[in-house]
Amino acid sequence: MIILHQDIFEDDEHQDGSILIQINGFVYNIGSLDGEEHWIERQSLEDYNNDLDGFEYAEWFPANDKRISFKFLKK
Question: Hey, where are the domains in the chain?
Answer without folding.
Answer: 2-74
